[in-house]
Design a protein that fits this description.
This protein is an all-alpha fold and 457 residues long. It has helices at residues 2-18, 23-35, 50-65, 75-90, 97-120, 124-152, 172-192, 200-219, 223-239, 243-260, 263-270, 279-297, 334-368, 375-394, 404-427, 434-443, and strands at 311-314, 324-327. Helix 9 (223-239) packs antiparallel against helix 10.
Amino acid sequence: MLRSVWLLFVYVSFLGLGATVPFILALGYIWVDTFRPQEVAYIILDQLPVAMIIGAAAVGGYLVFDRRDPPRLTLIGMTPALMAVWCTLTMVWAVVPEYGWTKWDWAFKTLIFAAFLPYIIRSRVQIEAMAQVYLFALAGNFVPFGIKTMISGGGYGMNLGLGSGNSGLAEGGQLSTFCLMAVPIAYFLMNYGQLIPRNILTRGAYLMIIVLSIVTAIGTYERSALLGLGVLGIYMFMRSKQKVLFGMVLAIGTAVLVYSASDRFAQRMNTIGTYHADSSAQVRLLVWKWTLEFSLTHPLGGGFNAFAVNVIEVPGDETNPGGETQHGRAFHSIYFEVLGEQGWPGMALFGIAGIGSIVQLRRLAKRIRNKPHLAWCVGMSDALQSGLMVFLTAGTFVGIAFQPIFWYFVVMGVSLREYARRVDALENPRQLSGWRNAASARATAGRKPVPAGGQQI
């Protein structure tokens, strides 16, 4: 009961504060979309369309009170909206429309709101606030999971967080991937955050969040988590300025993991190299083969949840010599999920969003690395790159292509690049000419130049 009252208070607070500062309504939507209070509350919130209410309020607040400095129309920035349009078109020829519309309902909302976010998330404070809200909303699920894992050792398919069932953050593959994506965000906020004072207490809190994120990912016993953790460590090491110290921490952490891992964990991870002996891994490979064949006859995709029509012939083994036939096995991969549902055009858009974002973020970091007042942008760029790399790696074995967090990382990158562009326009107005110069002058009229301390614009 107390939990439900507290969640209601938080939700109403977002609505109340957002009445005067519209971008807070967008933060409220991100909190609802990540934490999903309606699924763990017992009164009021579980009876209301909480996401629709606060999402509509965020869009309305922007249109009425906050229409300024819209981002440029870039291909990556437009990708969520283009994907939303294409996903709707594929439902015209969907192979299982009655089943596919259920996924379209939430995926379409995710894409449209992601396309909207760069319009309302523009300044340093807003970008950082978005990262903070996402991290704390996710922490509500992985902090209890991580603590219980330290006590019990975790386990495959165990629900140790707030959620229940086998979907959303209660599903190990999603939870472990999102936890690992939270690690570089927490590291960035620990070193560059301004909204929460940086001191020994807050630094310790962020370190604890990082530890519990990794413990939770390991505690799910998901094989994708081990791969994601490896990529995260390597990529953060490559982007770190203190490679010796980071390398020592990485080596010690790896040694502790190997020493403390239970036999169950070790047995689960060993199936990565013996997938032919693991029935779930073997079926997954057969599903991927079916999807490739399906994409040749359906190059424009089969609509959401097209996997429902697959028929998988599993060969026999020692325990089941006759083999078996399975129907409607899920894709279990972001790449095959997009390919089977949205075809090759959807795959192209997905690639632009993921790979294109990493390339653009690397270019941004390289361009501004020698500007001290934009050091936080470099840190944020590195954090987003690391998170996207984890998603694109761990997601190879998890069907989460349309989950909000991937698209949030993409649009945070858009907002970050637009912020750096506006700073450049203020510092070097003569670099622009013609209509670009006139547009920049109108957008920045009445503003003061950005000081060396890097205050927001």
